């Protein structure tokens, strides 16, 4: 623990954009928010905490050479893309899209009256100009107090897979639970994002929507101080 490095991002220090139909908090520089100290965390480039009004959404727009992950927290998010995919993703699911050589997609709130909330996450790929693809996974949240792997670099592993040596885990935990995350690769970093509740790690107390990056460490102990939902993102740090 002595040699580890950390960077803390409180919920209130994030960038914020209010487009009326969309309210978005940016953990890292994005669109009109620029902070030279927050360009990303290794391969993790974007972590947006989005809230979209009923019946509104993102019109058709392009992406390329980026791995894009959506994790709904509330409501139903409709997805359509130029590959012919059409789906509704809801809380308890995760969606991944490899933009590769280029893809167009649309996202909008399924409900006309209620907000939809979701995390929009971008990672740099480890291969450029791949064939675009889409993936979706249902998280077995029926098992509490367990870190569920929801993303990896292999289609033979649990969760969605992307073109990057990265692993995401999520879990819902009761108060006073303790757990330890063991790094897959000791040269990677781990970005912890508390969706709800409170977690203590690396002598730092994280509240809802706080983020903490940790690297140069082999395993990360966490203590849950109240009922919590946590997202852990292990990514290469060479970017």
From TrEMBL:
Gene Ontology terms, MF aspect: metal ion binding
Listed cofactors: Fe cation
Keyword Nucleus belongs to the record: no
Keywords tagged on the record: Iron, Metal-binding
InterPro entries: Pirin, Pirin_N_dom, Quercetinase_C, RmlC-like_jellyroll, RmlC_Cupin_sf
Entry binding sites for Fe cation: 61, 63, 105, 107
Protein name per Swiss-Prot or TrEMBL: Pirin family protein
Organism expressing this protein natively: Mucilaginibacter terrenus
